[in-house]
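Newbie here. two chains, one complex. Structure please?
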Amino acid sequence: MNVVALAEVARQFLVLSLLSIGGANAILPEIQRRAVDVEAWLTNAEFSQMFALSQAAPGPNVLIVSLIGWKAAGYVGGIVAMAAMCAPSSMLTYQIANAWDRFRDAPWRIATQAAVAPVTVGLILASGYVLTRTIDHEWQAYLLTIATAIVAVLSRVHPLWLLAFGAILGAAGIV
Amino acid sequence: MTIRADDIAAEPALPSLRDLFLGFLQVGISGFGGVLPFARRMLVEERRWLTPEEFNEVLSLGQFLPGPNIVNVSVIVGRRFHRVAGSVAASVGLMLMPLVILLTLATLYAQFVDLPIVQRATHGVSSAAAGLMLAVALKMGQPLRKRAWKVAIALAAFVAIGLFRFPLLWVLLVLGPLAYALAWRLE
């Protein structure tokens, strides 16, 4: 077991935990920047594969973190990455929940919530854009991404069907 | 007027640590691409640990703080019934099975990744998944449209991270206080 690699995985995700305003979806570009560009734990192509796997499996979106840790330092790396991603934010949440009743109606609390919403939307839009640029190289792939986005916004079809449709088009060599 | 058995049964017992663990274990393996709707169903409709109003409040707190939203929800709900032990039982219950399933899938995937058809199918899945991410942002952005400052902040975050790839820390340090000042003055 590579202790140095594990420590580096822990260090990166401990920081990311406290930066993840708006949840896991909002920090995908930052995860990619740190894991691919800074640490070279995996390539952009592998990052795309891990993103696809995490989306096609059950569970919360944050689980992509365990795949990055797995690529960097094996199974223990995957568990360390998940724990590091959740521990600091969970401890903060626990402490804030203790005091929540006291400041629930405070003006600064309401202003903070109003401020977080648009930042989150912008970050998730950036996630979608960065992923699209990382994953799609031909016009057929861009078309699939855009068509999937439109169908998902306008209809209530289950996301898993859209992923399955993508898999079929991909396997058939169309995208 | 008679008292019906349903009325009595509607009063739920306080969940034990085991209940918290198993309840969130069920949530963890329920959803694809986000499990929040399943958390709501379990907490509000099936087990009645929270009223709908309480769930909304827990969710808004979970979304407002850093960290995966659903993990924050499990921490808050677990704390409510059993303090630290409850938070640990709920959050470990939530992540355990998805973690095992995903690492197993990844191990299997690694065996077949060199097959061209697997690579092409994965590519199709990831293209569609990127579209799903765009759809999440567009749906979440709908309520912001009425406020020009919110649209401006969202676009600034998008440009800084999406186009310029600036480090997130610096973007948050600049946009956070700016958004807060605007919210304070305009809301």
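Moderator note: The longest helix of chain A spans residues 64-103. Chain A has seven helices and no strands. Thread marked as resolved.
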